[in-house]
């Protein structure tokens, strides 16, 4: 049982870290005591730290490859290629978060929620890479696309961003419905 938990601990950690980042951003961005500080850099560094800790947890779980090969009723399958892809994904996510700092500085974009929206699709991709069943892959893709709908419409004052988000939602709902109902 402990080996099973270690095999999925990176996914569990990144989910919990994302929720803690969201709570941290909401509490401190609405705090009158702290004079409503812009938390983009603070939440960004914490998000980068959570991705790197997830990478370490994934590397620590790699020796359990032979023990936890199949788990959760064949929904997920781990092998060396899935670990390589997950490590590559986490490194690219860390690079994306580090590139966001310069972009936010140039755009004067003070929304800490945007940084929180980067680890959420990463969690879904971490679940999609070892997916061995079509249901598990479908659920991971849907969890990922929900985050991308919000990212597409993240600039609240831009008409183009709102239009892009609503079009993306509508165009994503039709294939999902067709895939589910045939």
UniProtKB/TrEMBL annotation:
Topology term for the membrane: Multi-pass membrane protein
Primary location recorded for the protein, binned into one broad class: membrane
Record-annotated membrane-spanning stretches: 12-31, 43-69, 81-101, 135-152
Domain NADH:quinone oxidoreductase/Mrp antiporter transmembrane: start-end pairs: 131-182
Subcellular location: Membrane
Family matches, as InterPro entries: ND/Mrp_TM (IPR001750)
Pfam families in the record: Proton_antipo_M (PF00361)
GO annotation, cellular component aspect: membrane; plastid
Keywords (A to Z) from UniProt: Membrane, Mitochondrion, NAD, Translocase, Transmembrane, Transmembrane helix, Transport
Name of this protein: NADH dehydrogenase subunit 2
Lineage: Eukaryota, Viridiplantae, Streptophyta, Embryophyta, Tracheophyta
């Amino acid at each position: 049982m402990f080996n099973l938990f270690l095999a999925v601990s990176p996914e569990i950690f990144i989910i919990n870290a994302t929720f803690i980042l969201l709570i941290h951003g909401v509490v401190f961005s609405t705090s009158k005591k702290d004079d409503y500080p812009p938390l983009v850099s603070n939440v960004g560094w914490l998000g980068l730290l959570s991705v790197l800790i997830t990478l370490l947890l994934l590397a620590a779980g790699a020796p359990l490859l032979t023990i936890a090969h199949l788990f959760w009723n064949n929904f997920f399958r781990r092998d060396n290629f899935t670990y390589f892809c997950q490590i590559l994904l986490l490194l690219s996510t860390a690079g994306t978060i580090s590139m966001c700092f310069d972009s936010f500085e140039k755009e004067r974009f003070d929304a800490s929620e945007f940084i929180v929206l980067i680890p959420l699709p990463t969690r879904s991709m971490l679940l999609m890479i070892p997916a061995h069943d079509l249901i598990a892959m479908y659920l991971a893709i849907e969890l990922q696309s929900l985050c991308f709908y919000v990212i597409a419409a993240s600039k609240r004052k831009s008409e183009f961003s709102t239009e892009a988000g609503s079009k993306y939602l509508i165009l994503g709902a039709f294939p999902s419905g067709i895939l589910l109902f045939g």
